[in-house]
Amino acid sequence: MANKKRTPRGSRCGSRWMPALLALVLCAGSASAAERYDTLTDENKTAQEKAWTLNKDNWEKAEGLLPEQVLKRVKAGDYTFTVVPIDDERFKQNLGSNYWAASEANEGKYDLDAETCGLKYKDTGEIPEHVFGQPFPKIDPKDPMAGCKIAWNFYLGNQLGGGVGATFTLNGVDRNGEFRRVKMFLHINGYQGRIEKEENNPEKLRATSISHAMEPADAEGVNILTQQLNDWTTTDRMWAYLPQTRRARRVNAATRSDPLAGLDIFADDLNCFAGKPEYYKWKLIGEGKVLAPIIGPYSLPAEKTGDTRSEVRIPYLQAGYETPGNEGAPWTITKNLTLVERPTWILEGYSVDPYYNFGKVIMYVDKDMGRIYWKNVHNRAGEYFYTAMCGYHFSNNAEGNYGVVTPNMVMGVNDKTDRAALGGRYDTQFIERKFDPHYFSLRALSRLSD
After folding, report:
1. How far apart are CA 159 and CA 150, in angstroms?
2. pLDDT of residue 261
3. What is the CA radius of gyration of the chain?
């Protein structure tokens, strides 16, 4: 039976919007009415010729390959997935041979602060200003710091592109279809894990971002600036600009664990974890294989549009509520998402911030690529309530030496309320190697709404 589609509606502005928009800026994606792109390469199309369908009729084939809560929904008919066999070595080359060469050269170069999980040089104990490649290319599962090392491999891999940006929407979806929609853009500049070091970093940041809310009308003009300092102990600095007051004020970074204006998605769902590695106590609790959500599965072309900028066109991830005749959950992805089988570490994380709302968080992390594909979240009382599926795409330039991985979507599902939110699904992205440093400033934050 097709789902009844609702007319999207917004949310009230004010105190309720503040934590929501802080979180919104950390989720990338777009479900606009713009042209949809069919940009899969011939290599991707060839790989998908061997695809098979996972659904309620053969759900047993995914036993041990999906989180329990997700497998239950496959069995119930909520989810149908396209599974694509891949060449694991070819898949690794999505990040480029230069990345793996740098990772190999990093072996033995870095160490960790045992108390904070902070990264440092092994010989001097100083905090590195720039690291390209995995700082810990070899993980010993018996190492008590293995979880923290895996977290650092993941974190630095997030910044390979340097600067990135996209316009996106966030969609609240329940059994009746879409009930809320917010549109905005997010621009991010990463300093520490990028391919080449950015020399202009006077504030000694790891990353910075700026966002602008575009619609609905009651959210239009709300802007957020975030700065992440390159140290072991400080929390992110965040400012929110409200057009009603024409002022920017400082806000608490712990709002990453607040729901977005009543939606079932959180700021920490970007990349399945959006904070510093130092924000969690990490523990490696297992390893195995998982079906990982990917667009591709091989790199999409990054087309050069300027001296420092490239654009990536991405097939749109269509959802169930947008698909006539869909019989699965309205929030399931029905087009252009593929699952690939990948070896994973299973990490347990627990926030050290007493104002953070999550308790135990379980993450499934690719052993090679460092991506978190699935995240199970428990509240502070230890009760499970939420699973996030984090999907990615890879891109590369014509020379094949600028491999970038970018989060493209989050499907956040609240199993207590049986509803979800979709963050992502944007169909164009830019990669910027050299942002104007004045762009990420309080002055720019207020002028976005002029």
Report:
1. 15
2. 62
3. 20
**pLDDT recorded at residue 1:** 39
- 215 or 102: which carries more pLDDT confidence? 102
Contact 29, 166 (CB under 8 A): yes
CA dist 114 and 281 (Å) reads 10
pLDDT band, very low/low/confident/very high, at 15 (cuts 50, 70, 90):
very low
Identify the band that residue 194 occupies on the pLDDT scale cut at 50, 70 and 90. Answer: very high
DSSP state for residue 234 in the 8-state scheme: P
The sign of the dihedral angle between the CA atoms of 143, 377, 375, 58 is: positive
Mean pLDDT of 338-350: 98
pTM confidence score: 0.90
User: What is the distance between the alpha carbons of residues 241 and 128, in angstroms, rounded to a whole number?
Assistant: 32
Identify the H or E element spanning 297. Answer: strand 280-304
What is the spatial distance between Cα 61 and Cα 59, in angstroms, rounded to a whole number?
A: 5
User: In whole angstroms, what separates CA 381 from the centre of its chain?
Assistant: 26
The torsion angles phi and psi of 341, rounded to 5 degrees, stand at -80, 125
- Using DSSP, state whether 167 is helix, strand or coil: strand
Residue whose structure tokens are 């990028």:
194
Q: Give me the architecture of the 17-447 domain, per CATH.
A: Clam (2.50)
Per-domain boundaries in the chain: 17-447
Residue 258 pLDDT:
78
Q: C-alpha angle with apex 207: 395 to 184, nearest 5 degrees?
A: 70
Nearest to 357 by CA among 256, 280, 270, 429: 256
What is the rounded CA–CA span in Å between residue 26 and residue 4? 30
Cα gap 3→260, rounded to integer Å = 24
State what percent of residues in the chain have pLDDT above 90. Answer: 75
Amino acid at 99: Y
